[in-house]
Amino acid sequence: MKFKLRFPAKQIQELAGRFSDESSAVFVNEVGPAARARGFLTRPEFLALCEWKSPRTRPRCASNSEEFIAAVTGTALSTQNEQLRVEVLTLLRGVSWPTASVILHFCARDPFPILDVRALWSVSAAVPSQVDFPFWAEYTRFTRRLAARAGVGMRVLDCALWQYSKENQSA
Fold it and tell me: Is residue 17 domain-resident?
């Protein structure tokens, strides 16, 4: 898969500035830092992240116990193995690759993109029918390089990708 940004990288800051989602601020300012410091997500934090990404998964996500959430997210946030980081999260009921990417995006020490149809469209890609680790790894490498070249953090890049799609992708 070859990713290609649909707009000039110099527009990333401007696009991100037009992104409006106050609900994610709690993940940036509170949930993410607390999870990194603690080393795992609490059940309420986990449920909030899941609902933000995909409200319809709430009943399945809510069926995970506090202990299982802590064990799985603790593994994801502590390992250096990129494949284990993302795939272990899918052991949690209700968590697919996009939700796993949200957990890593907000809570991991390393930068991770959010796997989202809008963001993928902005880099000339579509969500594959079956997401797998090679696709995820390539997308993660691409976004990390792009963020570094543009001199922005992953959150800024993610907001810009989402916003560009919102403004330019026909329904």
Answer: yes
Residue 65 domain flag: yes
> How open is the CA angle 68-108-94, to the nearest 5 degrees?
40
Which residue range(s) make up the domain with 156? 9-168
Please state the pTM of the whole predicted model.
0.95
State the sign of the Cα–Cα–Cα–Cα dihedral 27, 33, 36, 41. negative
CB neighbour list of residue 127: distance below 8 Å, 6 or more residues apart: 115, 117, 120
Does residue 135 lie within any of the structural domains? yes
C-beta separation of 32 from 110 below 8 A: no
DSSP 31: I
Rounded to whole angstroms, the Cα distance separating 73 from 67 reads 10
Examine residue 139 and state whether it is found in any structural domain, yes or no. yes
Tens digit of each residue's pLDDT (9 = 90 or more) over 41-99: 999 999 999 999 999 999 999 999 999 999 999 999 999 999 999 999 999 999 999 99
